[in-house]
Inverse folding.
């Protein structure tokens, strides 16, 4: 048996690593000349430095992330505070605070004014309890109040970044998944972590090395153009200039973007509405005491990240900024960064990165269009953060989808 994995984003890499770890032959094909998909690093000629296409945050309690990094030998490639801390700045009020949850499951921190969001009361946090239950087909605004201080200063920016969709209209079920896997499990599962020194070093290059050392066949720059079907199974894969006939016991894992999967697989229902993410990378060394991550209230930027050699900004659900020119965006976003870190002087060199279809729009309607990993074809399975993982479109969701597809391909339930 050979398992053909189509797509070398994180879902495809996760699937390939899981299959190879079971000792089965793997052929990994990727249309682009690089792996990583939307989670990649590259050398930017304008800045003359390596940057990530986006600022991808994970949490210490992301179990699939932890397993994947161990499997590829990349433990220690994530950095962050030793304790769960979330720094915020309200740009309009000039107010700063740090949210500090307890390590354990009992949220004693909500009883201490100095550890919770300023201006909030204990009863405000009951909104988190409401999201612990399933709410199929309902929007967040139908489940919790969206006019409280806690909403404006913490829950809205949290859900905006995690769901990449205007939170009021986003799926309450997907928001609930975030709450159940973070707040409900305690602060030790909530430490924010970022890749060090970059995404490729943590998630991509070690995976490719592990696959190649294990004998996997990794073929980049090999787009799949069509899948041939017969008798309820995939029988051939058509690539540029070649067609590969599948043996009776071969398996296929399709881990490509939803719009590509829809073209390859007849009748497949996938999300059709997407949301943009905007990132800006400034070539400037952060101040020595700069927190690794700061959330912004009332600005254009939502999160400011401080790396060793640069400062980066993320704006989620950024469709309204996609047509704004780069120079205007640079000035707009640098203004926020300068206020947060009390910086003066000229605007440093900047690279703006726009992902117009970064994730599916996390609304109830689009969530309902996410397909399962198992398909109508007995030897073909799906992976991707857009499949029905029960999570938003995150790194954790992508890796889980790859593990699930690999399990099914190898005959698991």
């Amino acid at each position: 048996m050979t398992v053909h994995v189509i797509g070398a984003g994180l879902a495809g890499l996760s699937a390939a690593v899981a299959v190879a770890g079971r000792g089965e032959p793997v052929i990994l094909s990727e249309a682009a000349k690089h792996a990583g998909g939307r989670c990649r690093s590259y050398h930017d000629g304008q800045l003359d430095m390596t940057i990530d296409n986006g600022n991808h945050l994970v949490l210490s309690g992301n179990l699939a992330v932890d397993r994947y990094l161990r499997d590829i030998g990349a433990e220690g490639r994530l950095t962050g505070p030793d304790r769960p801390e979330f720094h915020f700045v309200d740009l309009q009020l000039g107010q700063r605070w740090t949210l500090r949850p307890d390590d354990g499951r009992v949220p004693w921190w909500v009883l201490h004014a100095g550890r919770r969001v300023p201006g909030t009361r204990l009863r405000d946090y009951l909104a988190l309890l409401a999201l612990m239950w399933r709410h199929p087909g309902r929007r967040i605004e139908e489940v919790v109040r969206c006019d409280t201080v806690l909403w404006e200063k913490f829950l809205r920016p949290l859900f905006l970044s995690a769901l990449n969709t205007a939170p009021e209209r986003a799926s309450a079920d997907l928001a609930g998944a975030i709450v159940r896997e973070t707040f409900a499990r305690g602060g030790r599962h909530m430490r924010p972590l970022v890749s060090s020194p970059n995404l490729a070093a943590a998630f991509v290059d070690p995976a490719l090395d592990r696959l190649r050392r294990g004998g996997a066949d990794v073929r980049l720059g090999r787009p799949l153009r069509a899948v041939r079907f017969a008798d309820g199974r995939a029988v051939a894969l058509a690539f540029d200039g070649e067609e590969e006939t599948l043996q009776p016991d071969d398996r296929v894992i399709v881990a490509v973007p939803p719009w590509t999967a829809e073209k390859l697989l007849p009748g497949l229902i996938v999300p059709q509405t997407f949301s943009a993410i905007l990132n800006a990378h400034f070539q400037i060394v952060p101040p020595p005491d700069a927190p690794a991550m700061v959330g912004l209230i009332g600005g254009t930027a939502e999160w400011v990240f401080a790396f060793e050699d640069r400062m980066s900004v993320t704006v989620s659900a950024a469709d309204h900024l996609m047509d704004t020119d780069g120079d205007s965006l640079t000035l707009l976003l640098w203004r926020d960064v300068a206020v947060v870190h009390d910086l003066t002087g000229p605007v440093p060199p900047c690279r703006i990165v726009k992902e117009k279809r970064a994730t599916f729009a996390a609304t109830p309607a689009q969530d309902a269009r996410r397909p399962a990993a198992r398909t109508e074809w007995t030897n073909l399975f799906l992976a991707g953060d857009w499949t029905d993982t029960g999570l938003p479109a995150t790194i954790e969701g992508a890796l889980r989808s790859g593990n699930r597809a690999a399990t099914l391909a190898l005959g698991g339930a």
